[in-house]
Specification:
TIM Barrel, eight-stranded parallel beta barrel, 11 helices, 11 strands, globular, binds 1,3-dihydroxyacetonephosphate
């Protein structure tokens, strides 16, 4: 499969009223499960490693797996670095072939956020790499710590300033979504989302997909979301089913016998999210 431009995929999603899902992987088995599910659903998707995964596996290996997978995939596939707080990690992901990176400097002041995004954009754009930034905050217990504060909501003028000053390609927005499982029903500020969408042309990203009901994901897409991030439900499905299979198999299990049924369970979840984002058949 030839290299696809994420910009084009997001534009098509915007015009077609669907979103590109981005799934977090932890190792090679969920990585493969996500790609197989996307191919079976004929869906363009993103496959993302967070900084913990990159630091554990190594950016060289993640990059190499990503490159090989993007070349081999039967459907458009974009390998992405998720939630990097460090400019140097974004740069090294780019060096190792990631076509898309996220610099998340949302915990800093607007000025510092803009500065970090400018630095990544300056490195990424000449090499044709897509950059995502974040404004406002994603709640919950993510890799960035436990954010429960009330000032999570994106400010329209700040979003517009960040886009204008940096030329960033997509923007994650704080609208009440949270990383991890929700306690109770997620309270998403759709009005603020619509206001940001009206103010800027840049594709908008929803983080904290796990646990958001289908109708809310679709309402978010209608109000300007072009990319939906899903992580927790992938690794929980992986680990919980792994435990079950290991118990079933008893002593001396063989790795491939264990992971095969586990991959099928992960694929079911990925396919459900692909349909929720209405991206099935859009490859
Ligand atoms: P969840 O883990 O809540 O699905 O969020 C994933 C995410 O936003 C990754 O950036």
């Amino acid at each position: 499969m030839i290299q696809h431009s994420l910009k084009e995929l997001l534009k098509k999603a915007d015009q077609g009223g669907y979103a590109i899902p981005s799934f977090n992987y932890s190792d090679i088995w969920d990585f493969l499960a996500i790609i197989e599910a996307a191919e079976e659903e004929e869906a363009p998707v993103m496959i993302a490693s967070n900084p913990l995964v990159v630091m554990d596996i190594g950016v060289e290996l993640c990059g190499a797996f990503g490159k090989a997978a993007m070349e081999k995939a039967k459907t458009p596939l974009i390998h992405h670095l998720d939630h990097s707080f460090r400019v140097d990690m974004c740069k090294s992901a780019i060096d190792y072939g990631y076509p898309s990176v996220m610099i998340d400097a949302s915990k800093y002041s607007l000025k510092e956020n803009i500065k970090a995004v400018q630095e990544v954009v300056a490195y990424a754009h000449p090499q044709g790499v897509h950059v995502e930034a974040e404004i406002g905050k994603i709640k919950g217990k993510g890799i960035e710590g436990d954010f429960k504060g009330g000032d999570f909501l994106v400010q329209v003028d700040e979003a517009a300033a960040l886009v204008k000053e940096t030329g960033v390609d997509s923007l994650a927005v704080g609208i009440g979504t949270a990383h991890g499982f929700y306690e109770g029903k997620p309270e998403i500020n759709f009005q603020r989302l619509a206001e940001v969408n009206k103010a800027i042309d840049t594709p908008l990203v929803l983080h904290g997909g796990t646990g958001i009901p289908e109708e809310d994901i679709r309402k978010a897409i209608k109000n300007g979301i072009n990319k939906v991030n899903v992580g927790t439900i992938i690794h929980c499905t992986y680990m919980n089913n792994l435990r079950e299979e290991l118990v079933k198999m008893g002593p001396n299990p063989y790795t491939l016998d264990v992971v095969k049924p586990v991959k099928e369970k992960i694929k079911e979840v990925v396919k459900m999210w692909i349909r929720t984002c209405m991206v099935n058949g859009k490859a």
